Amino acid sequence: MILSTGSPVLAPGGSLLLVLVASGLYLLATVPAASWGRLSAVGLLGGFVLHALLLLIDIGGLGQPTPGARLGFGPVLSTAVWMVIAVYAVESRLLPVPVVRQWLGLAGIVAVLLAASFPGDPRVMHSTLAPVHFALGVGSYGLFGAAVLHGLWLDAAERRMRTAGAAALGHGRPPGMPLLQLERITFRFVEVGFIVLTATLLLGIVTSFAAPQGRWLEHKTVFSVLAWAVIGGLLLGRRVRGWRGRQATRWLYSGAVLLLLGYAGSRFVLEVVLNRGGA
Predict the structure, then answer these.
(1) Are residues 111 and 206 in the same domain?
(2) Mean pLDDT score of the chain, rounded to an integer?
(3) Which residues touch 53 (CB under 8 Å, ≥6 apart)?
(4) Residues 1, 116 contacting (CB under 8 angstroms)
(5) Cβ-contact 57, 75 below 8 angstroms
(6) Which of 141, 119, 142, 113 is CA-nearest to residue 62?
(7) What's the structural domain count of the chain?
């Protein structure tokens, strides 16, 4: 995909065709399952596969005239959404949740179109650790995205339990998943995401010294460190003070928002608001 810095222009040629087909398949997933049956599941799977191919084209710069990884906010968010859909795809083999499939289909459409419109400029990696740093950063986005998705399920289940009693609990969570198990899975994603985020920050320090005019203290770093502190506080609060329920998920959402404002938010301001994609 070729993009003039900061200008929202969809990809030309074959890439545009992939974008349209992937969006169309994701659109099938947004249709209520009662109307289309297995077709919505097939749509999500097909969109997921083409989505992965588009990410290879965007981030890897495959087939592009200018070498370098495209690390704009669009591909980063798109990768995070793709990873959340991957987590759902694995869990849905045991616990299908058609309503979540519809929301993920919509998120897939937005992610694919964002990555196509704002892929960012090609950037040369100045350190052999830089690709690892980027991969870990995107991985932390995906892990916390999955944690947020499960946190929303957890909040919905607890709301149902409080307002309608245990009989209505099944409407607020994935069917067949006990509430305590859902909570364990949610915070397992948080724990792994925290470890990955910690490794990302440490590698970021190393790679910043390898780059010309390397800078460590940037807006994205500040937000990422704040997110790390909030998530660390959440894990400490759960271990020491037994935080659970909405108190814990509020900390999770706050940390996830700060992390989102870190790289993706900073790149959005640079690429779109300030028209400085190469900064």
Answers:
(1) no
(2) 77
(3) 18
(4) yes
(5) no
(6) 119
(7) 2
**Is 162 a residue whose pLDDT tops 50?**
yes
Query: Do both 175 and 143 map to the same domain?
Result: yes
Same domain, 215 and 169: yes
Give residue 10's identity as a one-letter amino acid code: L
Angle between helices 13-30 and 98-117 (to 10 degrees): 160
Range(s) of the domain holding residue 157: 125-279
> Which residue carries 């900390």 as its tokens?
251
* pLDDT classification of 34: cutoffs 50, 70, 90: low
Q: What pLDDT band is residue 276 in, cutting at 50, 70 and 90?
A: low
Q: From the centroid of its chain, how far is CA 10?
A: 21
CA angle 114, 116, 118 (to 5 degrees): 65
Cβ(161)–Cβ(169) under 8 Å? yes
Q: Are 85 and 155 within one domain?
A: no
Q: pLDDT at position 76, please? A: 82
Chain centroid to CA 69: 18
Residue 69: φ, ψ to 5°: -80, 140
Q: 109, 23 in Cβ contact below 8 A?
A: yes
Residue reference for tokens 């100045």: 126
pLDDT at 3 over 90: no
Q: Are residues 142 and 256 in the same domain?
A: yes
* Integer-rounded Cα radius of gyration of the chain: 20
Residue found by looking up tokens 């690390």 in the block: 71
- The pTM for the full model equals 0.75
Question: What's 10's DSSP letter?
Answer: P
In the structure, how many helices (H) and strands (E) does the chain have? 9, 2
Strands (DSSP E) found in the chain: 69-70, 122-123
